[in-house]
Protein: Alkaline phosphatase
Organism: Sciurus carolinensis
Amino acid sequence: MAEAHVPTEAVPASGMVSLAASPEPGSCCGSSHSPLSLAQSSAHRATLWHQDGHRVTEPQGASGKLWLRNPGPWAFDCALLGLGQDTEPGRNGASALGEPRPPAGLSSAQADTTKTFWASRAAGEKEKDPNYWRNQAQQTLKNALGLQKLNTNVAKNVIMFLGDGMGVSTVTAARILKGQLHHRPGEETKLEMDKFPFVALSKTYNTNAQVPDSAGTATAYLCGVKANEGTVGVSAATERTRCNTTQGNEVTSILRWAKDAGKSVGIVTTTRVNHATPSAAYAHSADRDWYSDNEMPPEALSQGCKDIAYQLVHNIKDIDVWPTVSHSCSSSLPFTLLLKWTCPLSRGDWLAACAGPRKPSVTAPGLGLQALLLVIMGGGRKYMFPKNKSDVEYRMDEKAGGTRLDGLDLVDIWKSFKPKQKHSFFVWNRTALLALDPNTVDYLLGLFEPGDMQYELNRNNVTDPSLSEMVGVAIKILKKNPKGFFLLVEGGRIDHGHHEGKAKQALHEAVEMDRAIGQAGTMTSPEDTLTVVTADHSHVFTFGGYTPRGNSIFGLAPMVSDTDKKPFTAILYGNGPGYKVVDGERENVSMVDYAHNNYQAQSAVPLRHETHGGEDVAVFAKGPMAHLLHGVHEQNYIPHVMAYAACIGANLDHCAQVSSAGSPPPGPLLLPLVLLPLSILF
């Protein structure tokens, strides 16, 4: 059974229309086939049903309701498909396997329907040939054999894409959606991450949770150690909400490792920049929800803990401000400063290495070394400004205004920390962002919403940039550093869509992240750039129901329940807000607009917010040392691989081997280290 989309724009306001059945491909609308009757009802949706009672298409538009009784397996509006009542293949511009010219006067939705049908039909014919599958498999085998020559280059750049909540079922559904957005059946489509040569599985549990949260997992895949749920940038010795368990248990992230090695770093997210995922890159907090001091309990404030927005500005300030170092080395080779961070809220120890027989000495804090580039983009404006300060975009919305109780303007403080000879920019809308000349930008802070950024389907194309646009700008700025960069990119609202039971929002977020992955791929080379795509955790999201090939990912399953005799969507949740009972029975989804952007898919257990899933998630990798991501790994293994590939962090022995073999050293030279104590208080 296949699916034919009949846009409701073609449905008259009242009365009957005639559609002809087409039992075989290539013989649409033959005059010998019995016509179908179409009647309007009051449900305000279009529904197409097979003769055995199984639904075979999803509604489109918002017109009347179609009930078609079809003696054959197909029902198409032949006028929409570009064929006449007695048309044979090859007439009216069509061939047996080709796509006809759509008839004049169709709406864009009707033209899209025509394209989708013919694309599905052509794919179906091609796939009937066994050689299609054999040739495809042989090409895949050839590509796999080519991977025997491993890419062991040093990764100058590292890009990590994190799809928050992007479990395997979400990846598969997003793949189908991507194809269907291009008028294809969808299942055969390749996401950008599907093209990566190496795939692994990541075990996502937190140290105290079988099913994890995004904070403990972020600490794992950014800092390299597993942690308790709800905590960021700290070890498992820190207990959630207990400020006094933080000091001494801070752990550093790969962002700092990269920065210490002289690389530029950047963070791009569709959530707040102080949300769980990005905050683990720079903050150390006993509670992920301490966005500003307004969200912190008095006890934590009195004990000296700082909110995450404060740490965003002050901890990263410390990364950018280097001590002045005087040195006298007999060698012409440069020395490199490495920062060993022990307590980010109080002080640190500096390690310095010199290429010559003499050792450098610290003279005074300052800016003796050029401050490196830094990019921060996402949402979260309100946490940066004093309470009751109106938002620059939503001036009349009190909830969008500043939240800070300490009266600090963190954006002004961020600007004040930047070297005066450098060019720092704060932007809050898409127009200003895209107007920037990346060649003249040294520091960029882009905060485009008071809270999280808008869903991609709801995004204002004037005021809010897309994830792929932000990634493009970030890479242009960061790649100016000859030592390379580390960029963390989060498709964070995949997770939010699932929590709200809004699968359409979640999957469009995943497709947009896929566009961003493609954008990054066109701007970098796998020869010197390691790209890793993964998720922090999964969701209790699934789709099934024996749907036919090309079935809309948001459509109904081709059957009704054998228990309550009601239809159901292919997409369902194990729990969440989509649980609805009408007159003591499960809601009949054919009576609601389940194609709406904010439709909440049915769930088995009622919850206000759908939960995470506990199964392993996929890790996709390409570029230098990508083959080290294979098999099933603990999630905290991931940053150790990225650091190894880029010759940053602690494990650098192989980098010395690369240097001795005659290749230029990728980052800091491996030289004797001298511990230089320096107490730096913020």
About this structure: The radius of gyration is 28 Å. Confidence is low (pLDDT under 50) at residues 1-101, 318-371, 660-682.
